[in-house]
Amino acid sequence: MDKKWLSFELHKRKILSLILLLAFIISLFSIEWNKDLIHSKGLDTAKQIATAFFTPDLSGDILLLAMESSWTTLSYAAAGMSLAIVIAFFYGVPASGIIVADGKGKRYIRSFFRGQLGFMRAIHELVWAWLFVASIGLSPFAAIFALAIPYGGILGRIFADMLEDVSKEPIKGLEAAGATKLQTLWYGYLPMVRANITSYAMYRFECAVRSSAIMSFVGIGGLGYQIQLSLDDLHYDEVWTFVFFLIILVIMIDLWSNQLRKRLVQ
Amino acid sequence: MKKRRISFITVSVYALLLLGTASWISIFMIEKASLSLLFSEQNLYYAGKFFKGLFGIGEESPAFLNVESWKNALDLTLETLFMSVMATGFSTIAALLTVVPAARNIADGSLTLVKKWHGWLSFGAVRGGYIFSRAVPELVWAMIIIFIFKPGLLPGAIALALHNFGILGKLFAEVIEDLDSRPVRNLSSSGAGRLQLLLYGVLPAALPRFLTYILYRWEVIMRTTIVVGFVGAGGLGQQFKLSMSFFHYTDITLLLLFYLLLVFAADFISEKARWFIK
């Protein structure tokens, strides 16, 4: 009996892989595999898009427009992230339950704030954007709030997890010296998680740039908006120009945040 | 050395602060966005109307009291689930097929003790492909792909897979780079071929973390399925867009409800599955 259980333990990974593979195969049956999947001129279009990839439109006005929309995208991302950090701080601290005394109240406060953070991040930023546009109209704030809420949810949760995982000795030292809860937060917890949370926030900033680019789908300006306009005009060469700008932007932020993270977490 | 390290961080912090301030300034000054206009009477009226619509106040037959729309939403939920699983599968297969040359310790031959002349070439090509595919957001992929495929589940799955292919590939390659190289070297020195190395040396050691990453990406894909639906790639997102265009706000409430259930279910399942293989 004991041995059987052991072998089950050993094969857990294989069992899970099999289940996942099975799920994938089942999902393939949800599509009718025939010629109707592709537009009648779909392959020609694919060819055109592929050739346009090598001949992006590099004329002056397009480049200028691309740079302008890159800045719009970047500025929405930065503004959204700055709000997200504020949200993360004010939700993350109570969600970690470190400033409340142990007991029943702590559990309630924790689950209350954690639940709210979970709700914020469960809905995709684009859905938030749509809800905001439908209620407050086409304003940059719709994009900024839509970015700030789900990113605040993710950052807040990670922030709370980090605060809970802090090693307790320095905190106990502070408490023994007579520090209040707020003082332990300020002088104990925050300095210890600062490097990690900054590095995580930098990583999310890179994602925020990508998300901010697609905000345009609901009509808010930026790179994605230009991509969509060019696609609607069937100017595939312009599409690739804007896509390349987006890629360059993302890669630049990626490199920067990688360098910064390498130096921060050591 | 230490002095330079500090200065890079300080410069970065100042640059970030500058970027943040410049962004807010440009939003307020150049785009003339104003907070007070946001809360104008007209906007409040529309926002109120919208939220009343979401809760079906003053509506004769709200969708969440209608059996037909529940059934419809359930079907769409199932479709969305299939799409996410398919997307995860596609990207996993593509990433697994390309990951071997993309690991740094295979490119320089330190893992397998076999150095090939094209090691760095294929490393660069595959890694470049990863960067390209993950730098383009799912929605943009979907917008482009919808020009080739007819609206449905497949283009959505492909768009999601294209974006996640780059992410999974990078994560997988990093797992291989972190592997203990001794078992693989043993295999290699006793004459195992490339495929055998992969099957008996790399995969058993890397599988648990591969599975963790697959499950984690599946969670994220689940959340994103609704977005590719917006451009006509099927599932809940497509219906969401249609309902929004027809001002069927109560339908949206129902769809959002199912979407949330799906996301939470995916989180739950993937967490339990990860715990299962721990």
TrEMBL record, chain A:
<feature type="domain" description="ABC transmembrane type-1">
    <location>
        <begin position="70"/>
        <end position="257"/>
    </location>
</feature>
<feature type="transmembrane region" description="Helical">
    <location>
        <begin position="239"/>
        <end position="257"/>
    </location>
</feature>
<keyword id="KW-1003">Cell membrane</keyword>
<feature type="transmembrane region" description="Helical">
    <location>
        <begin position="122"/>
        <end position="149"/>
    </location>
</feature>
<protein>
    <submittedName>
        <fullName>ABC transporter permease subunit</fullName>
    </submittedName>
</protein>
<keyword id="KW-1133">Transmembrane helix</keyword>
<comment type="similarity">
    <text>Belongs to the binding-protein-dependent transport system permease family.</text>
</comment>
<feature type="transmembrane region" description="Helical">
    <location>
        <begin position="74"/>
        <end position="101"/>
    </location>
</feature>
<keyword id="KW-0472">Membrane</keyword>
<dbReference type="Pfam" id="PF00528">
    <property type="entry name" value="BPD_transp_1"/>
</dbReference>
<keyword id="KW-0813">Transport</keyword>
<dbReference type="InterPro" id="IPR000515">
    <property type="entry name" value="MetI-like"/>
</dbReference>
<dbReference type="InterPro" id="IPR035906">
    <property type="entry name" value="MetI-like_sf"/>
</dbReference>
<keyword id="KW-0812">Transmembrane</keyword>
TrEMBL record, chain B:
<feature type="transmembrane region" description="Helical">
    <location>
        <begin position="81"/>
        <end position="103"/>
    </location>
</feature>
<feature type="domain" description="ABC transmembrane type-1">
    <location>
        <begin position="77"/>
        <end position="270"/>
    </location>
</feature>
<feature type="transmembrane region" description="Helical">
    <location>
        <begin position="197"/>
        <end position="216"/>
    </location>
</feature>
<dbReference type="InterPro" id="IPR035906">
    <property type="entry name" value="MetI-like_sf"/>
</dbReference>
<feature type="transmembrane region" description="Helical">
    <location>
        <begin position="7"/>
        <end position="30"/>
    </location>
</feature>
<feature type="transmembrane region" description="Helical">
    <location>
        <begin position="139"/>
        <end position="162"/>
    </location>
</feature>
<keyword id="KW-1003">Cell membrane</keyword>
<comment type="similarity">
    <text>Belongs to the binding-protein-dependent transport system permease family.</text>
</comment>
<dbReference type="Pfam" id="PF00528">
    <property type="entry name" value="BPD_transp_1"/>
</dbReference>
<dbReference type="InterPro" id="IPR000515">
    <property type="entry name" value="MetI-like"/>
</dbReference>
<keyword id="KW-0812">Transmembrane</keyword>
<keyword id="KW-1133">Transmembrane helix</keyword>
<keyword id="KW-0472">Membrane</keyword>
<feature type="transmembrane region" description="Helical">
    <location>
        <begin position="246"/>
        <end position="269"/>
    </location>
</feature>
<protein>
    <submittedName>
        <fullName>ABC transporter permease subunit</fullName>
    </submittedName>
</protein>
<feature type="transmembrane region" description="Helical">
    <location>
        <begin position="221"/>
        <end position="240"/>
    </location>
</feature>
<keyword id="KW-0813">Transport</keyword>
